[in-house]
User: Which sequence fits this backbone?
């Protein structure tokens, strides 16, 4: 079992209840998309999985244990096995792409190796390979503030691919990437998860991407799980209900409102 | 709809004004005194002795030696200050505290280190460098070494505090993210915090170096070498020309610091 939550509640310090009694089990090697309107609690949920937030109450198990019962060293080791792709990649503007990617392994490298890599990058080939998979190998020695938002997001994905985590979490990883490339990036993440048999959980804004690539879809609304189904069993009505707060427009990649009467979404989960 | 922030802002402004006003009263600040005819005459006479400048070859040679000594005091002092400030600022910086995002049970271990470190920095900088210089002049004798030590300690305290403030004020998300993916504190600092803070660190350090040049002059007066000692001699010999030449050298030094700072900022931007 990669992840399990039992009656997990998370209340932000300002009193907002972002996650409201969630029960969930995700097995090793599963690929799950989390969808829902903005403010539904998708990011909070992912941050709970990433052990970045501590549940206010309830039981949380990540990679075979309650992370909040571990001592400092063990928690660090668990965290180094979790890779999180952030929507806005938290990479210093002045950092070079190669450094940003290599930083993915800091959790596993001894300190001297991390520091040595600042003097001369220790694994240029490794960083280049991951960037090539994101189709930005030519940006290897570029500074991150010279990249577009979409390119930077792909650097963030490359960093997590380089990290080789056992649990890949992505929080709207392609919100700034154009549709054709988005498809490629999400496909690449899926291929990585399948090839290495690791768990992939992605929150996605574009519903068509989620339904296309993931065998299991979790709909989240107001901090609760509304449905948890394979894509073939998700009806247009369920999606419309999920996004009822957003003028009943189901968001898709090209940001064209999906006309709901025509069931036009491709549903073809990649076989594993 | 009323702006909910309006009342607190108004109150804050009132408090600031109320706090500032007694300061002027207590210091008997009165700009009128400057323009009093008698005071104007005294000041004019003093300034009159400043010209012509002292430009004899002997004096210029002496001046060059003192200038180099002053630069050396400031630079060596800053090197000591930086070596001291870096570890202290890392200890004090809260964003690097793993216990904030990590297991809550050992949150105390961080505070054990942070509070004494904060206190040490406060102690170093709360005693003015001139007092340290007087102490060290007694300890290591007259000469530049006392100035170096005095600057090292006082400025170490200041740099440590400001470095940690710079670290805190920048975007701490890169650092926290690295900590959240299991990297150690120092690695997270080197990869997440340093690149964010570097331009500000450099420009503040160069500014402090400029201050150190001026401070070394003041300490020269109590016998810690450099331009200040020269200035004190010239003042005592009532040779205004030499004093004004030394002042011009100060101006040039500050301009030099400014240029270096601008250059470094361009390099690190």
Assistant:
């Amino acid at each position: 079992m990669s992840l399990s939550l039992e009656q997990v509640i998370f209340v932000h310090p300002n009193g907002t209840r972002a996650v409201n009694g969630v029960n969930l089990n995700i097995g090793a090697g599963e690929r799950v998309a989390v969808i829902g309107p903005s403010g539904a609690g998708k990011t909070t949920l992912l941050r709970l999985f990433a052990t970045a937030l501590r549940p206010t109450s309830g039981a949380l198990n990540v990679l075979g244990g309650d992370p909040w019962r571990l001592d400092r060293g063990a928690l660090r080791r668990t965290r180094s096995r979790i890779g999180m792709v952030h929507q806005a990649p938290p990479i210093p503007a002045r950092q070079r792409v190669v450094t940003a990617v290599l930083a993915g392994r800091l959790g596993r490298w001894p300190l001297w190796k991390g520091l040595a890599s600042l003097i001369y990058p220790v694994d240029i080939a490794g960083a280049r390979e991951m960037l090539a998979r994101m189709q930005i190998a030519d940006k290897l020695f570029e500074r991150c503030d010279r990249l577009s938002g979409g390119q930077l997001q792909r650097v963030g994905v490359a960093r997590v691919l380089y990290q080789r985590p056992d649990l890949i979490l992505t929080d709207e990883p392609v919100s700034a990437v154009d549709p054709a490339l988005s498809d490629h990036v999400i496909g690449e993440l899926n291929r990585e998860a399948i090839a290495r048999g690791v768990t992939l959980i992605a929150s996605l804004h574009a519903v068509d991407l989620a339904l296309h690539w993931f065998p299991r879809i979790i709909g989240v609304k107001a901090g609760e799980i509304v449905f948890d189904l394979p894509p073939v069993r998700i009806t247009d009505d369920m999606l419309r209900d999920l996004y009822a707060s957003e003028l009943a427009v189901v968001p898709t990649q090209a940001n064209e409102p999906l006309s709901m009467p025509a069931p036009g979404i491709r549903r073809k989960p990649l076989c594993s | 709809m009323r702006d909910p922030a309006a009342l607190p802002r108004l109150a804050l402004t009132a408090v600031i004004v109320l706090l500032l006003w007694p300061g002027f009263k207590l210091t008997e600040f009165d700009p009128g005194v400057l323009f009093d005819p008698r005071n104007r005459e005294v000041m004019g006479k003093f300034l009159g002795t400043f010209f012509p400048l002292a430009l004899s070859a002997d004096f210029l040679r002496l001046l060059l030696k003192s200038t180099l000594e002053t630069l050396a005091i400031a630079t060596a002092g800053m090197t000591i200050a930086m070596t001291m400030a870096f570890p202290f600022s890392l200890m004090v910086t809260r964003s690097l505290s793993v216990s904030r995002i990590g297991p809550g049970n050992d949150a105390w271990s961080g505070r054990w280190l942070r509070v004494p470190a904060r206190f040490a920095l406060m102690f170093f900088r709360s005693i003015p460098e001139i007092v340290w210089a007087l102490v060290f002049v007694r300890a290591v004798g007259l000469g530049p070494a006392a100035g170096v030590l005095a600057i090292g300690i006082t400025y170490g305290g200041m740099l440590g505090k400001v470095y940690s403030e710079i670290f805190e004020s920048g975007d701490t998300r890169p650092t926290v993210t690295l900590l959240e993916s299991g990297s150690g504190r120092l690695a997270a600092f080197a990869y997440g915090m340093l690149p964010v803070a570097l331009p500000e660190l450099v420009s503040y350090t160069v500014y402090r170096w400029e201050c150190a040049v001026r401070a070394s002059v003041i300490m020269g007066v109590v016998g810690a070498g450099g331009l200040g000692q020269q200035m004190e001699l010239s003042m005592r010999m009532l040779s205004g020309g030499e004093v004004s030449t030394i002042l011009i050298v100060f101006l040039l030094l500050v301009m030099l610091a400014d240029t270096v700072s601008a250059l470094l900022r361009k390099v690190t931007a």
Summary: The domain at 57-268 of chain B is CATH 1.10.3720.10 (MetI-like fold). The mean pLDDT of chain B is 84.
